[in-house]
């Protein structure tokens, strides 16, 4: 990302620039954290990284693809194949089992039913939820829901996992378990992870920390 800006309500009395110009590079296989106080612009940046919103100006290349030149009808398809999301509040579908929640991204990607079921079971086992495959979210604890959400994020074998405050709704013990899963995905599976957090202790666990202040990013500090 280079020179990324985001302005809301352009041309009105309520015009507000949240991102005045960001440069941000993530390499394949990195585990990067973006830290900053509430209101610093982290959520806006996350939405642009995750292809949920367009910047006002700037350039964004993802996997060699010029994102801002991509037609809108292709953007959702590209996002589904290349980015997995893990949110603070899980965003699971309550009336569906853990397996069906994990299958959803694959269904949108056109994966056949048998393969969806096979891969969902494999991914739930990977995150320690193989024995809860038929349980609905209301039958799961917060930590179990987040593990299902991580499995869902992995459904289409994405290039990037984008985690927005993934431990924010969890107690410290369960949050530790979730972070251990992220570390395993990064070191053993080679997954690229961008962690959005306000918690400097979590950020210190990643290989590079980038700080956001008033919509601007520093260059990041590599952890030796």
From TrEMBL:
InterPro entries hit by this protein: AAA+_ATPase, ABC_transporter-like_ATP-bd, ABC_transporter-like_CS, ABC_transpr_LolD-like, MacB-like_ATP-bd, P-loop_NTPase
Superkingdom as given in the UniProt entry: Bacteria
GO cellular component: membrane protein complex; plasma membrane
Domain ABC transporter: 1-223
Presence of the UniProt keyword Transport in the record: yes
UniProt keyword annotation of ATP-binding present: yes
Keywords annotated in UniProt: ATP-binding, Nucleotide-binding, Transport
GO MF: ATP binding; ATP hydrolysis activity; transmembrane transporter activity
PANTHER family the record matches: ABC TRANSPORTER DOMAIN-CONTAINING PROTEIN, IMPORT ATP-BINDING PROTEIN
UniProt name for this protein: ABC transporter ATP-binding protein
Organism (species): Corynebacterium meridianum
């Amino acid at each position: 990302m280079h020179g990324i800006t985001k302005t809301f309500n352009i041309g009105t009395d309520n015009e507000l620039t949240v991102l005045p110009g960001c440069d941000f590079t993530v390499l394949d296989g990195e585990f990067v954290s973006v830290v900053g106080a509430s209101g610093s612009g982290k959520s806006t940046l996350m939405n642009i990284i995750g292809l949920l919103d367009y910047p006002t100006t700037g350039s964004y290349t993802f996997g060699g693809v010029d994102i801002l030149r991509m037609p809108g009808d292709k953007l959702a398809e590209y996002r589904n194949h290349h980015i997995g999301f893990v949110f603070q509040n899980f965003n699971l579908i309550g009336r569906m089992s853990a397996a069906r929640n994990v299958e959803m991204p694959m269904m949108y990607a056109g994966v056949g039913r048998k393969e969806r079921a096979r891969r969902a079971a494999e991914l739930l086992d990977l995150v320690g939820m193989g024995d809860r495959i038929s349980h609905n979210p209301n039958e799961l604890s917060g930590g179990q829901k987040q593990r299902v959400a991580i499995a869902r994020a992995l459904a289409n074998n994405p290039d990037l996992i984008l985690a927005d405050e993934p431990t924010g709704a969890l107690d410290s013990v369960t949050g530790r378990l979730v972070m251990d899963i992220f570390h395993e995905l990064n070191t053993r599976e080679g997954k690229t992870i961008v962690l959005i957090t306000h918690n400097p202790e979590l950020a210190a666990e990643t290989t590079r920390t980038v700080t956001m202040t008033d919509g601007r990013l520093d260059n990041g500090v590599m952890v030796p």
